[in-house]
Amino acid sequence: MSDTEEEENSGKVIKITLVGEPLTGKSSICNRYLGGSGVSWGGTQGAEVSAAQWAGARPPAALQLCDVAGAALATTMLPNYLYASDVVIFVYDLTNLQSFEKLDMWIKSIKDIFESEPKKPLMALFGNKSDLEHQRAVRLSCVQKLSSEHLLENFKVSAKTGEMVNTAFSKLIARVLGVKMPVEVAAHRKSTDTQISETNAQPPLPSNDATNTLIMNRKMLRKIQRKASSSVCCVQ
Known about the structure:
Layout: H1 3-10, E1 13-20, H2 26-33, E2 47-54, E3 61-68, H3 78-82, E4 87-93, H4 97-101, H5 103-114, E5 122-128, H6 140-149, E6 153-156, H7 165-177, H8 183-186, E7 214-215, H9 218-229
C-alpha cells in the first residue's frame, strides 16, 4: 500500500453490518471473530455494536461490527442500523432452508435502502454452521444462483469451529480498503505474528481458522464506542 493510501485509511472506521433471520448465528459469528468461543446466548435486541482493529492493513484499520436483530426487518429502524455500512453480510443457517429463503426479502429491503445512496456497500453471503454440512438443507446450486444474481461474495463459515470466519472477514475488509490480502491469509497458513485479544484482555480461545488478523485494544474500543454512542446504529 502506498503512503497516500495509508493516510486515507488511517482515520477510516470500516462498518460491517450483519443481517439475517433469527437464530442464524450472527452474534456467534461476531463473537468468534472477536476472539470468543463462537457461542452467544440470548437473542439480539435492536442492534449490538462491537469495535476492533484489523491488522491486515498498515496502519491497522479500525472496525465497527453491527449485529442486527433478526426481527429488525419488520421495523422502521433497519435503515438506521445500516447507516454508513461499508459491508453488509447476509447470514443464513445452511441447515435451515427457511432462513435462506427469507434472504430474498432482506436483500430487496436493503438494496432499496441504499438505492439513493451514491456509495453502495460491499455485500456478502455467509452460510453459517459448515460444521453441520451433513445436515445441509440448502442446496449449493441455490446458494450459487442467489450470490450470482445479486453479485454477493459467498462464504461458508462456522461460528462454532471458527472455520473461514477470519478469512472471510479479512477478504471483505481488504476489498473495502483496496489492499492486497496479507500473505498468511491468502496462503491459509498458520501465523505466529498475528494475535487476537478480547476487550477484557482475556487470552483468546483457539480457532480452527488459521488466519487471525484481528487486534483488539481498549484505547481503540473506547474511541469507536464513543463514536458509536452518537451513531444511529447502537444498542436499542
